[in-house]
UniProtKB/TrEMBL annotation:
<keyword id="KW-0175">Coiled coil</keyword>
<feature type="transmembrane region" description="Helical">
    <location>
        <begin position="547"/>
        <end position="565"/>
    </location>
</feature>
<dbReference type="InterPro" id="IPR002490">
    <property type="entry name" value="V-ATPase_116kDa_su"/>
</dbReference>
<feature type="transmembrane region" description="Helical">
    <location>
        <begin position="468"/>
        <end position="485"/>
    </location>
</feature>
<keyword id="KW-0813">Transport</keyword>
<dbReference type="GO" id="GO:0046961">
    <property type="term" value="F:proton-transporting ATPase activity, rotational mechanism"/>
</dbReference>
<keyword id="KW-0812">Transmembrane</keyword>
<keyword id="KW-0406">Ion transport</keyword>
<dbReference type="GO" id="GO:0016471">
    <property type="term" value="C:vacuolar proton-transporting V-type ATPase complex"/>
</dbReference>
<dbReference type="GO" id="GO:0000220">
    <property type="term" value="C:vacuolar proton-transporting V-type ATPase, V0 domain"/>
</dbReference>
<comment type="similarity">
    <text>Belongs to the V-ATPase 116 kDa subunit family.</text>
</comment>
<keyword id="KW-0472">Membrane</keyword>
<keyword id="KW-0375">Hydrogen ion transport</keyword>
<dbReference type="Pfam" id="PF01496">
    <property type="entry name" value="V_ATPase_I"/>
</dbReference>
<feature type="coiled-coil region">
    <location>
        <begin position="99"/>
        <end position="126"/>
    </location>
</feature>
<dbReference type="InterPro" id="IPR026028">
    <property type="entry name" value="V-type_ATPase_116kDa_su_euka"/>
</dbReference>
<feature type="transmembrane region" description="Helical">
    <location>
        <begin position="755"/>
        <end position="776"/>
    </location>
</feature>
Length: 818
């Protein structure tokens, strides 16, 4: 025990020691102090205004302003994205501006952009209408009979439409003008020309036919290219139509139908000369509008470029300001003393750094009163904080996904760094596949700096975050693949020749029959001669199944041992004597003994049936073992272990609840005394402090909880051991699937003389290897390894009932805010 006490502490095994602190900040230095603490990122503020709604807090107006500025910045970002521009990663240097100046500057930019967008939209609509008018003039001219003339009123209407205005942005839309076809009392044939989406043309024609009772002639012609609809601004395939009819009532009906179907009608003169003149004018107007639109786009892009240079800097600034005001809203505002009072958690090692930052904030804000920083007594459990790096962070996230460790509870991530990739490799073991994973991990690590600053997809972001996990999984897969002697399911004589040879000269098939062992075993891993032999599958099944049990029992024992260190760290002798000791006895009396029998059988080469030994250890403990006896004294040892396993169950169940009840009664009868950390008066004086009263003792609840825990451990000792057999099952499945792809795809294709068949076989084999063995099997083994750690390993000691330390840190603010 003295040796254990002298061991140096493991920093990553226990979370950082935390302390509850109080800050009393003068109003004039509050903003700067919180900003400096956000840059430091080592203080988690407690919300002292949890009973108030967001609209009742002191700095709600400032938060609203930050939200409005964020909206404007998102608007600029969308405009830059729509313009096809890319915001630079590094902003150009610019003098620092405060929030008020930035708000005024952004409002001016927003107003300018909105105005430019409105003008551009109106010009674009006019341009699209003129483009449609040009198509109608080109196609409809062939349908019209020459020699007929319209009245002067129509020509005057065309003159007004095409020449009368110089400012194109103020030209009324052709769609909003009434199409005039001459005086209403004019007799004879009339027509309406326009353009409509091709998908609506058939229904449009039928509707006009029914409305006019067949008294019409409908002509249509497709446009040469897709046209932009002036209203929806979408590229659609359209057709030009001309409807000939007679009568004023028919005209009214047709115009209503055109409006209902979204058809755009344009007046076309019948005279060929007039058509050419109008066409030339339309082309001239289109050319001028194109120049105007190009000039507008250049001006708009220039404005967006100037905004994009500072957009990232502005966004970061606003996010920081919003975080500062959100934090200030968590503090109590003392009106009489003109100061803000806050509480929060910080690591003990960070106290000098925080004090230096607060002192600097006082100096920079020219405050006459300093900031008071004092340590408080805490009743509630502190948050959990582990200092991780880019290597250990992914393993810590794997553990935290199950549950965050309680304050200074033993951290499973210390052991998960090794055990997780190793158990994955036991199921995935193939050093060819491991090399493929290793190459992928090396690429991710080599591009770490470049990929870390980019916005990645969900899958790529997950792979990049776990790049070091993939690296260790690949290395352990290569190691286990060398033990299994599998390279894409093919064995190789890497470490020397086989230990087996033919029995005599007549032995031709050295893989199926007639093999004898003639020298020492193969130096490392499985002998290549087992491949293809009749006993290959029974041998590998037995090897991997027993190995899975050994690994499982070892990891479960590690979990129980960690429960001892937890109990020892928190000074709970009850958990040591009435939880750790009986659990170790029960588990190792049964499955520890099974592991011992496996090792002895491997070492002695015995033919004993371990299934028979374990079954009759319970059914007939006094029966003679016969040929299943592995060592002297096995029978009395089995009886002793069975007795210890039976005694361990009530040992876990009964003593602890009754001892806790006895200690509770003694506490209130005055037989034992202890130092009180906090009095009830303290709790009443500080109602805003983040504290909770201790729960009352309930014997029935404690006893039921202990009974559930004991029964659960007994059942889980069996089920968890069986669960580790997934290591054997997944390893066998991966090996056999790889063998099938190699023999039934690659070798089968290689048996043909055709180069094409060989290439097809190689492509199918590569596809199956990449997408099935390297992706699906990797994911399957990953999830099973995750299950073994979360359930079989961590439930032996890990409560996971803590909460993360989430300090005010500008470095961890989200990139995109809602």
């Amino acid at each position: 025990m003295d040796f254990v006490n002298k061991l140096p502490p493991m920093d990553f095994l226990r979370s950082e020691e935390m302390t509850l602190v109080q800050l009393i900040i003068p109003v004039e230095s509050a903003h700067r102090a919180v900003s400096y603490l956000g840059e430091l990122g080592l203080l988690q503020f407690t919300d002292l205004n949890a009973d108030k709604s967001p609209f009742q807090r002191t700095f709600v107006n400032q938060v609203k302003r930050c939200g409005e500025i964020s909206r404007k910045l998102r608007f600029f970002k969308d405009q830059i994205s729509k313009a096809g521009m890319v915001s630079p990663i590094h902003s150009s240097p610019q003098p620092d501006v405060d929030l008020e100046e930035l708000e005024i500057q952004l409002s001016e930019h927003e107003h300018e952009l909105i105005e430019m967008n409105a003008n551009s939209e109106k010009l674009r609509q006019t341009y699209n209408e003129l483009l449609e008018f040009k198509m109608v003039l080109q196609k409809a001219g062939g349908f019209l009979v020459s020699g007929q003339h319209h009245t002067v009123a129509q020509e005057r209407e065309l003159d007004e439409n095409l020449y009368s205005r110089d400012n194109y942005a103020d030209i009324p839309s052709f769609l909003e003008q009434e199409t005039r076809l001459g005086p209403s009392n004019e007799a004879g044939l009339r027509f309406i020309s326009g353009i409509i989406c091709k998908s609506k043309a058939l229904r449009f024609e039928r509707m006009i036919f029914r409305a006019t009772r067949g008294n019409m002639l409908f002509n249509q012609a497709p446009t040469e290219k897709y046209a932009t609809d002036p209203m929806s601004v979408e590229m659609v395939e359209k057709i030009v139509f001309v409807v000939f009819f007679s009568g004023e009532q028919a005209k009214i009906k047709i115009l209503k139908i055109c409006e209902a179907f979204g058809a755009n009608c344009y007046p076309v003169p019948e005279d060929i000369t007039r058509q050419r003149q109008v066409t030339q004018e339309v082309l001239s107007r289109l050319s001028e509008l194109e120049d105007t639109l190009d000039a507008g786009v250049r001006h708009r892009n220039k404005a967006l470029t100037s905004i994009a240079l500072h957009l990232r800097k502005w966004t970061i600034m606003v996010r920081k300001e919003k975080a500062v005001y959100d934090t200030l809203n968590m503090l109590n505002f003392d009106v009489t003393k003109k100061c803000l009072v806050g509480e929060g958690w910080c690591p003990i090692f960070a106290k000098p750094k925080i004090q230096d930052m607060l002192q600097q904030a006082t100096i920079d804000s020219n405050s006459q009163v300093g900031i008071i920083f004092q340590v408080m007594d805490a009743v509630e459990s502190p948050p959990t904080y582990f200092r991780t790096n880019c290597f250990t962070n992914a393993f810590q996230e794997i553990v935290d996904a199950y549950g965050v460790a309680g304050y200074q509870e033993a951290n499973p991530a210390v052991y998960t760094v090794i055990t997780f990739p190793f158990l994955f490799a036991v199921m995935f073991g193939d050093w060819g596949h491991g090399i493929c994973l290793l190459l992928g991990a090396i690429i991710l690590i080599a591009c770490e700096s470049r990929l870390g600053s980019r916005k990645l997809g969900s899958f790529m972001e997950m792979a990049f975050g776990g790049r070091y996990v993939i690296l260790l999984m690949a290395l352990f897969s290569i190691y286990c693949g060398l033990i299994y002697n599998e390279f894409f399911s093919v064995p190789y004589h890497i470490f020397g020749g086989s230990a087996y040879k033919c029995r005599d000269a007549t032995c031709r098939d050295a893989h199926t029959a007639g093999l004898i062992k003639y020298r020492d075993p193969y130096p490392f891993g499985v002998d290549p001669s087992w491949r293809g032999s009749r006993s290959e599958l029974p041998f590998l099944n037995s090897l991997k199944m027993k190995m899975s049990i050994l690994l499982g029992v070892a990891q479960m024992n590690l979990g129980i041992i960690l429960s001892y260190f937890n109990a020892r760290f928190f000074g709970s002798s009850l958990d040591i004597w009435y939880q750790f000791v009986p659990q170790m006895i029960f588990l190792n009396s049964l499955f520890g003994y099974l592991s011992l029998l496996i090792v002895i059988k491997w070492c002695t080469g015995s033919q004993a049936d371990l299934y028979h030994v374990m079954i009759y250890m319970f059914l007939s403990p006094t029966e003679d073992l016969g040929e299943n006896q592995l060592f002297w004294g096995q029978k009395p040892l089995q009886m002793l272990l069975l007795l210890l396993a039976v005694v361990a169950v009530p040992w876990m169940l009964f003593p602890k609840p009754f001892i806790l009840r006895k200690l509770h009664l003694e506490r209130f009868q005055g037989r034992t005394y202890g130092i009180l950390d906090t009095s009830d008066m303290d709790l009443d004086v500080e109602p805003d402090s983040a504290r909770h009263h201790v729960d009352e003792f309930n014997f029935s609840e404690v006893f039921v909880h202990q009974m559930i825990h004991s029964i659960e451990f007994v059942l889980e000792a069996v089920s968890n051991t069986a669960s580790y057999l997934r290591l054997w099952a997944l390893s066998l499945a991966h090996s056999e699937l790889s063998t099938v792809f190699y023999e039934k795809v690659l070798l089968l294709a290689w048996g043909f003389d055709s180069i094409l068949i060989r290439l097809v076989g190689l492509a199918v084999f590569a596809f199956a290897t990449a997408f099935i063995l390297l992706m699906m099997e990797t994911l399957s083994a990953f999830l099973h390894a995750l299950r073994l750690h979360w359930v079989e390993f961590q439930n032996k000691f890990y409560h996971g009932d803590g909460y993360k330390f989430r300090p005010l840190s500008f470095a961890s603010l989200p990139d995109d805010e809602d």
